[in-house]
Design a protein that fits this description.
Blueprint lengths: L3 E6 L2 E9 L5 E3 L4 H5 L19 E4 L4 E4 L2 E2 H7 L2 H10 L5 H13 L5 H6 L9 H15 L10 H27 L12 H10 L10 H13 L7 H10 L5 H13 L6 H14 L4 H9 L20 H16 L5 H15 L1 H5 L6 H11 L7 H22 L27
Antiparallel strand pairs: 1-2, 2-3, 4-5, 5-6
Helix pairs in contact: 2-9, 3-18, 4-7, 6-7, 6-11, 7-8, 7-18, 9-14, 9-17, 9-18, 10-11, 10-18, 11-18, 12-15, 12-17, 13-15, 14-17
The structure holds D-malate (MLT).
C-alpha cells in the first residue's frame, strides 16, 4: 500500500500522499492541504519545504554528498572540464566528443556582445561593484533578444538563449573588471577555450602579449565546476520563481545574480578574504579571533564556516582546500593568508564550541585564496561564483519550463490590523 501521512485537525483526520525520490528522500505532498482543510503550512526560510522535484543535483547534507546528474563532485572536479559539466547539468548526460565540440563551438561563436551593450558600460560609475553591472547587463540582454520573453519557446529557441547566455556572460563579467580598472575592454578570442578566453579578456592589454598559464586554466575549470549547481539554494530558487512567471532566461538569471550577491549567499567568499586580511593586519593571532568568534558579546563573526544544509562537512571545501595547496605550490606563491586560513580551520575543527555547532569550513572559505593566487581581485569573487553557477541556473530554469511548473505563489499568515475605517488627516492625533 502506498505510504501516506495522517493529519488530525480539529478532530478530523486527513490523509496526504508521501512521495519518494530516487535517493529515498521522502516528502509529504500537501498540494491539496488548503483545499481540504483550510490550513496552510508555515516554514520560514523553507528549511522543510521541497519547492520542486528535480533530477539535476543530489545533495546529502548529513553525509557530505554532492552529485550532478548522479556523478560525484569529486570525480567531475578531477576529470571533467567546466563546459562538459555545463552540458551535463543542462542536458542531463555527459556529452559525446562530437556533442561537446558542437556545444563549445556554438558558445565560442556567440561570445561577442552587441556594441550597444558595450556603450551601457559608460553609464555606470567606474567604482560600481561588478555584480551590480553584471546583473544589470544580463537583464539588459532581454532588451536585445525580446523574443526570449515567451511562454511558447521551441527547443531550438531555448537552446539559442542558453548558448548566448553561456557565451556572453564571460565577456560581460570580464568587462565589469576592466571597466572598474579603467582599462580598455578586450574583445573575446574565439581561438581560445572558455576559461582561457575569460582569463585573456580579464588580464590582457592591447599593448602586451598575454601568455596563458595552463595551471591557472585548470584551477579555474575546477573552481567553476565546484560552483556549478547546488540544488535549491537561494539564487537558484530565485531563478526558478522568477522563471515560473515565464520571465526570460536572462531576466530570471539576472534575479539569481542579485540573490547571489548577498553576503549571506555568494558574497560570503569576498567577506572571508576580507576577514583573513583583517586578521593579518591585526598581527595574525588566530587564537584571538577564535576567542572573539566564541564571545556572544563580540560582533566578530567567523566567515566561511557552517552551512545551511551540510552538517558534517562541505564536500566542495575538501576539494578546494587541496586545490588551494596545489595551485599555490605550483605557482610558487607563499600567501600568508593561506597560513591564517589553515590555522583557523585547524582551531575550529578541534574546538568543542565549533564541533557542537557543526561549524566546518564551507566552499567559500578557501575559494578566495585560490582566486587571489590566480590574480582575481576580491570584488570579482562573487562574479566568479556567478560564472560557475550559470549552468546550474540554466538547467534549473529549463527543467522548470519543461516540467510546466505553475507560477510560484506562496501564501502567508497575516498578522496585521483588522479592518478599520479611514480617518481624515485633520482628525488624526
Ligand atoms: C551554494 O552553493 O549555493 C551555497 O553553498 C548556498 C546553499 O546551497 O544554500
Amino acid at each position: 500500500m502506498a505510504e501516506s501521512a495522517e493529519l488530525i485537525l480539529d478532530g478530523k483526520s486527513y490523509s496526504f500522499p508521501v512521495t519518494e525520490g530516487t535517493e529515498h528522500e521522502k516528502a509529504i505532498d500537501i498540494a491539496k492541504l488548503r483545499d481540504q482543510t483550510g490550513y496552510i503550512t508555515i516554514d520560514s526560510g523553507y528549511k522543510n519545504t521541497g519547492a520542486t522535484k528535480s533530477a539535476i543535483t543530489f545533495l546529502d547534507g548529513e553525509e557530505g554528498i554532492l552529485r550532478y546528474r548522479g556523478y560525484p563532485i569529486e570525480q567531475l572536479a578531477e576529470q571533467s572540464s567546466f563546459l562538459e559539466v555545463a552540458y551535463l547539468l543542462i542536458y542531463g548526460t555527459l556529452p559525446t566528443q562530437a556533442e561537446l565540440d558542437n556545444f563549445s563551438h556554438q558558445i565560442t561563436k556567440h561570445t561577442l556582445v552587441h556594441e550597444d551593450v558595450r556603450k551601457i558600460f559608460d553609464g555606470f560609475p567606474s567604482a560600481a561593484h561588478p555584480m551590480a553591472i553584471l546583473s544589470s547587463l544580463i537583464c539588459a540582454l532581454t532588451a536585445f533578444y525580446p523574443e526570449s520573453v515567451s511562454p511558447d519557446l521551441s527547443k531550438e529557441e531555448i537552446d539559442l538563449n542558453v548558448i548566448r547566455l553561456m557565451a556572453k556572460i564571460s565577456t560581460i563579467a570580464a568587462w565589469t573588471y576592466k571597466n572598474n580598472m579603467g582599462h580598455p575592454l578586450n574583445y573575446p578570442r574565439n581561438d581560445l577555450d572558455y576559461c582561457s578566453n575569460f582569463l585573456y579578456m580579464m588580464f590582457s592589454f592591447p599593448t602586451e602579449k598575454y601568455e596563458i598559464d595552463s595551471r591557472i586554466v585548470s584551477a579555474l575549470n575546477k573552481l567553476l565546476i565546484l560552483h556549478a549547481d547546488h540544488e535549491q539554494n537561494c539564487s537558484t530558487s530565485t531563478v526558478r520563481l522568477v522563471g515560473s512567471a515565464n520571465a526570460s532566461l536572462y531576466g530570471s538569471v539576472s534575479a539569481g545574480i542579485n540573490a547571489l550577491w548577498g553576503p549571506l549567499h555568494g558574497g560570503a567568499n569576498q567577506e572571508v578574504l576580507e576577514m583573513l586580511q583583517a586578521i593579518q593586519k591585526d598581527g595574525g593571532d588566530t587564537s584571538k579571533f577564535i576567542a572573539k568568534a566564541k564571545d556572544k558579546n563580540d560582533p566578530f563573526r567567523l566567515m566561511g564556516f557552517g552551512h545551511r544544509v551540510y552538517k558534517n562537512f562541505d564536500p566542495r571545501a575538501k576539494i578546494i582546500k587541496k586545490a588551494a595547496d596545489d595551485v599555490l605550490s605550483a605557482l610558487g606563491i607563499n600567501d600568508p593568508l593561506l597560513k591564517i586560513a589553515q590555522e583557523l580551520e585547524q582551531a575550529a575543527l578541534t574546538d568543542e564550541y565549533f564541533i557542537e555547532r557543526k561549524l566546518y569550513p564551507n566552499v567559500d572559505f578557501y575559494s578566495g585564496i585560490i582566486y587571489r593566487a590566480i590574480g582575481i581581485p576580491t570584488e570579482m569573487f562573487t562574479v566568479m561564483f556567478a560564472l560557475g553557477r550559470l549552468p546550474g541556473w540554466i538547467a534549473q530554469w529549463k527543467e522548470m519550463r519543461e516540467n510546466k511548473e505553475p507560477i510560484g505563489r506562496p501564501r502567508q499568515v497575516y498578522t496585521g490590523e483588522l479592518e478599520r475605517d479611514y480617518v481624515g488627516i485633520e482628525q488624526r492625533s
